[in-house]
Specification:
- GO terms for molecular function: 3'-5' exonuclease activity; metal ion binding; nucleic acid binding.
- InterPro entries: 3'-5'_exonuclease_dom, 3-5_Exonuclease_domain, RNaseH-like_sf, RNaseH_sf.
- This is 3'-5' exonuclease.
- Keywords: Exonuclease, Hydrolase, Magnesium, Metal-binding, Nuclease, Nucleus.
- It is found in: Nucleus.
- The protein has 443 residues and is of the alpha+beta class.
- It has three domains: 115 residues, 2-Layer Sandwich (Nucleotidyltransferase, domain 5), CATH 3.30.420; 191 residues, Ribonuclease H-like superfamily/Ribonuclease H (Nucleotidyltransferase, domain 5), CATH 3.30.420.10; 116 residues, no CATH class.
- The chain has nine helices and 19 strands.
- A hairpin with a 5-residue loop joins β4 and β5.
- α4 runs parallel beside α5 and α8 packs across α9.
- The relative contact order is 0.09.
Length: 443
């Protein structure tokens, strides 16, 4: 009775549970000779001599088979089927396979799992000094305006910028500026000094040299900083806001932190990266941060310091203008997400999407053109993805089952033109919505 129940009702479920177990990047195998001695005997002779077992890093059994001997030939078929299960359920291939006979097992296991092969890379030559590195430079069409402690010129400059922003406001365009500040890093124990305020917009960068005797800023500059419909972008721009508030009592509004903004779009691996590193990833060149610790409250800034200050603000705006053209990654797709956007099918039990494609029609139910499958055993509308055939094909799915993903063919991250002066289309905001796909929807 026990055997009948196991064979008829539970065996398939047990095998399925074994195949879909996650955490299989580190595997360990061993042969056991005690168990086979008590089963499957014919005239007191054992049919099987050993039980071959594979466990993952959590000591969970992921593969088990009775074999007549320790010969590797008897394992080839079952391990190949194990690899097929990896592909079917979208598991990462193993990177290490622990065995008690490395010399003889190595070639056999690598022949089944290519991921076990170690590819030796030639040692990299040491890079040159920072002087020989190619740093970010301003495009030739950028105008840099330096205003040295002249309130009248600051008023005039900010009025000119406000007029440009008003034209964009009337046209319904988003208002965005790059913002940065400079101060004497080695002489600021209270973190309340502001010697320079840099503002980048379009093809213009304004470098405003602030006198330390001033207790306030011009009304035109203050209006720019406090307006909530003008987005100020920068790396650690919140720190600039705090410093301006401590120095002048001005509560700046509407900040956009570039680190998290780029990280959420998978343009950088870490949202805590410096502006220079983000610039390298997105604009193709780092920023020379050598002048950062210069003395900024001197009478007149040298040309190299003006250039450094200008690049810091311009780079923030240029990075934003590239990043805003990429959708937020990993958020639930809203019914208003535009047709043509890249999307992934992501069940609740998976950390990553099981398939990728392009939204062909959107609403509460979306039509997705599937272009890539990672988990061919996933059941979409009750049918395994592998049963639909090779991509591409179209599926109708609830929009709440989809998440935004980076486009399959990424736009070049090194802009050929001036990205700070380019108007990129807005990306529709994606909303958060819990996944309602039941765990049972898997082959």
């Amino acid at each position: 009775m026990y055997t009948a129940i196991i064979d008829d009702k539970l065996k398939l479920k047990m095998e399925k549970q074994t195949m879909i177990l996650d955490g299989k990047k580190l595997l360990e195998c061993d042969h056991s000779f005690k168990f086979p001695k008590h089963i499957a005997k014919i005239e007191d002779a054992s049919v099987f001599t050993t039980l071959f077992t594979v466990t993952n890093e959590y000591e969970e059994i992921v593969h088990q088979v009775l074999v007549p001997s320790k010969s590797l030939l008897y394992l080839k078929h079952s391990l190949e089927k194990m690899k097929e299960a990896y592909d079917l359920y979208g598991h990462e291939m193993p990177v290490a396979f622990f065995t008690d006979n490395v010399q003889s097992d190595k070639r056999f296991l690598e022949g089944i799992f290519d991921s076990l092969k170690v590819i030796e890379k030639p040692p990299q030559q040491a890079t040159g000094s920072s002087e020989s590195r190619s740093f970010l430079t301003l495009p030739s069409d950028i105008e840099m305006r330096y205003v040295n402690r002249d309130i009248g010129r600051i008023v005039e400059t900010m009025k000119s910028l406000s007029d440009k922003l008003e034209v964009e406001r009337n046209a319904g365009k988003p208002l965005v500026i790059g913002l940065d500040t400079e101060w004497n890093v080695d002489d600021d124990p209270q973190h309340d000094q502001v010697d320079l305020i840099q503002i980048a917009h379009g093809n213009t960068i304004d470098i405003l040299h602030i006198d330390r005797s001033w207790n306030t800023l011009s009304e035109e500059l203050v209006n720019l900083l406090v307006k909530s419909d003008i987005t100020k972008v920068g790396r650690n721009v919140g720190g600039d806001f705090s410093r301006i508030n401590k120095r002048f009592g001005i509560v700046c509004q509407m900040k956009l932190e570039l680190g998290s903004f780029c990280s959420q779009r998978q343009l950088v691996s870490n949202g805590l990266m410096s502006l220079s590193d983000i610039s390298l990833c997105i604009l193709g060149a780092p920023i020379d941060k050598g002048p950062q610790r210069s003395v900024w409250n001197i009478a007149d800034l040298a040309a190299n310091l003006q250039m450094y200050a200008a690049i810091d603000a311009w780079a923030s705006l240029a990075i934003y203008n590239v990043a805003v053209n990429h959708p937020l990654v990993g958020a639930r797709v809203s019914p208003t997400c535009p047709v043509g956007s890249s999307a992934g099918i992501k069940p609740s039990r998976y950390r990553q999407p099981v398939a990728f494609g392009e939204i062909m029609a959107n609403g509460r139910t979306a039509v997705v053109k599937i272009t890539k499958i990672d988990v061919s055993g996933y059941l979409a509308n009750g049918i395994a993805l592998q049963a639909y055939g090779k991509p591409s094909f179209e599926l109708s799915l609830p929009a709440s089952h989809l998440v935004t993903v980076a486009p399959m063919s990424q736009v070049s991250r090194i802009p050929s033109a001036n990205p700070a002066a380019t108007n990129y289309p807005e990306i529709a905001a994606a909303i958060s919505n819990p996944n309602t796909i039941p765990d049972s929807e898997i082959l």
